[in-house]
Amino acid sequence: MSPARGGAAMRLSGLLRKEFLQIVRDPSGIAIAFLMPIFLLVLFGYGVSLDADHVPVALVADAPSQDSADFLAALQGSHYFVPRVAGSLPEAEQALREGAVKGIIHLSADFSRRLRQADGAPIQVLVNGVDANTARLVEGYVTGAWGAWLAAQSARRGQKLDMPVDLQPRIWFNSELKSRNYLVPGLVAIIMTLIGALLTALVMAREWERGTMEALMVTPASMSEVLLGKLGAYFILGTGGMLLTVGLAVWLFGVPLRGSFWLLWGCASLFLLAALGMGLTISTLARSQFVAGQIAIIATFLPAFLLSGFIFDIGSMPAVVQAITHLIVARYFVAIVQTLFLAGNVWSVILPNAAALALMAAIFLGITWRKSRKRLD
User: Fold this and answer.
1) N or C: fewer beta carbons within 10 Å in the chain?
2) Displacement of CA 62 from its chain's centroid (Å)
3) How far apart are CA 128 and CA 104, in angstroms?
4) Residue 202, Cα to own-chain centre: how many angstroms?
5) pTM, full prediction
């Protein structure tokens, strides 16, 4: 090895050692890298759910009969509902207004008679539409429970239930319909955004505030070597956070990882490089921790949380917002990680999004390299 290369390797090794010592001595960085993932996983894994289980509903039968009692018993045996028998429809409506129940299932006085007619007996379902998502789920659950009960009644009588449409649902990728299986993989992108962009921006700004960046500038190390030292240290830190998140997702929450782990690691590395590039780019614009933190939250974390498809479906957004999401780096990684966890190695999804991540990483790292010079202005 030539003396120049040997000197560059020694300087880079020293810079990496300096970064790791700084990480160890700064508990806030370790907290963001390792404690924040655990907190977010526990919060979203246990506390946040898009499912509608144990929904309180009021059951009203104007003329109780064996048929109405049998149908209401079927609802009471479902984990989707917490039934509450109301004496009358006005009583149930009052409970709905007060928020004590989310819906009302009303059986009219002629329910048993009309049940045996050709057109069948209708049931009335009233739902609280304040929360539109829960209202649609309750409506769907009641419809499904009604169809299953009719089929069971027909089978008990030895009859065939004539339905206008014979539905045979088959659910792919998330057959249990657990929102946890959808949310937890997306958290990998959110956590890596925090580690890559927010933490890097804050650390660089802290060095400007404390004057250690000026001390680095008077050393023989070039600015490229300084940036490589920071990239290497926080790349390893981000990889550790990713491994922790994936391990907890699989072993603690039972989310299936159907794709290749090494493919996930490769795509996560591309995303981490892009996130580190964003953090370093922010640090070239803001040399104050407060300003850098605000910019990082507004420009990276909030878009990753709201516009990446992590929670809200991009296809349901307005066309203008859908176009804006193409500028959000986390959008591409969320698509990859949810596909790898739930569907497997779907190359038609992984390759285009991985290419977009590589392009984003090249853009942000290129901007950082061009803007970073050994100067104090």
Assistant:
1) C
2) 44
3) 9
4) 24
5) 0.77
